[in-house]
Amino acid sequence: MRICFIPIDNRPVCWQLPLDIASCNLDVEFYIPPRELLGGLVKPANVEGIYNWLQSVPVVDYMVVSLDTIAYGGLVSSRRTNKTYEQIVQNLEKFKNIFENKADKVFAFSSIMRISNNNINIEEKEYWSKYGKKIFEYSYNRSKTGSEVNNNGIPTDILSDYLSGRERNFKINKLYLDWKKSGIFDILIFSKDDCAEYGLNVDEANLLYSLGGDVMTGADEIPLTLLARTLEEKISVCPVFTEENSKNLISNYEDISVEQSVLRQAELAGYELKPYNEADLILVVNNFKKNQGEIVMKVDTEPYSGEFVTPNKPYFVADVRFANGSDNEFVKSMFKNGRDNNFIGYAAWNTTANTVGSLLCLVKFVYLAKRLNPKTYENLLATRFIDDWAYQANVRQQCQEVKDISGLMLPYIKQIEKYLGQSGLECSFSFPWDRLFEVEVSIKSGDRHGYSRNYTFNNSSLD
């Protein structure tokens, strides 16, 4: 099967992760643009270069495309670009021909422009450093009242620029909806990121929904969830929550409950939901009792206090008790008895939707693989623990700025090696966006005893 994948940008979780996931399944031919063509934090994607690259790609069974990349140059650029609606549409028309002739099915995703409640302009226009919170409040109040409100001290020219950018992006999303109705896209998802109860982004989501659009909470994970959808073989899952009585609570940065987030991601990824005894797989969700913790923002929550008992069938773990990293107590409980043959995957990446969507993709590509690439798979297992647990939940808290973290990471890597049955992992670390928020883990070598494991969870054969 051939799959073409256009990421949101060049971050490790957006470019390297899908490449590694697809590489686990040796029956998949995976086409992804060279990383240097994709957008970063300050530099937009080379859209013309991506178009030329697509010309060289053979006809594929599926194309998964992040529309923000080809329209604006990436997710960050979608908030910063000064291109007009007409300029963007003119460029999109070229890609429309690609969609019609290069893929049997096209799964597309476009973001609804977020509104962050802070004065941090790292991913926004320059004026966000002074007026970000005021723009958020203006948006919130205008949405809540349903009418024009006081400009909250925001200069007229800045508010006008912000609103015109929102209007342009919304018109682009309505254009995509027309393309979906005409058959260009087989699936089209509009994502809402960093949600509040009210806001212009919430109003736009409601309008798109009323026009027939499919709207989802989340963002960065949606291309991965759509990638999972390309594998159409039936597979069933049963979510099991460590805090069953709290699964109706809402996670940070989202506007739906943990349970709804899990079920929506599973549905989009193409999983069937079945009771425990009938399901192929068990998704263990380590959720929170009262509120989701936030490691980066130093918001604590009650950690896991039980004794982790592994399910008696293939399972994977979405650790969402904290945002932006693992629950140390849960990982300690997992590591206590070592890895068992039913364990398939783990994630604790950023938001609940990020964690669940990316994990559903990994598991589907591994579980359904007729020929499994054990080297890539074992590296992926190690990388998620190294990134989500060792770095995000621990080492990152010891860093005030980007620096060499190899020494700090070593004690955690030793524990990961012991749990996974690996040894001698040689890891290097970099910060591709020159900030602590995301780290890139590169595993160079090591003796992966897991290579000779009996991968019995779906009779996958080793290459």
- Major sheet summary line: 6 strands, parallel
Number of helices: 14
The shape, in one word, is globular
DSSP, total strands? 17
Overall tally of domains: 2
Radius of gyration: 22 Å
Write out the strand line-up for the largest beta sheet, numbering strands in chain order.
Answer: 2-1-3-4-5-6
**Alpha-carbon distance between the two ends:** 17 Å
Describe the structure.
With 463 residues, the protein is an alpha/beta fold. It has two domains: 2-226, no CATH class; 235-462, no CATH class. It contains 14 helices and 17 strands. It has helices at 12-23, 47-56, 67-72, 77-80, 85-102, 128-145, 156-181, 200-210, 222-229, 258-269, 328-336, 352-367, 374-391, 406-420, and strands at 2-6, 29-31, 60-66, 103-112, 187-192, 214-217, 236-241, 272-273, 281-286, 293-294, 315-319, 322-323, 343-347, 371-372, 422-430, 440-448, 461-462. It has a six-stranded parallel beta sheet with strand order 2-1-3-4-5-6, sandwiched between helices. A five-stranded parallel beta sheet has the order 8-7-9-11-13. Helix 8 (200-210) links the parallel strand 5 and strand 6 (214-217). It is globular, with a radius of gyration of 22 Å. It starts with a strand and ends with a strand. The model has no long low-confidence stretch (mean pLDDT 94).
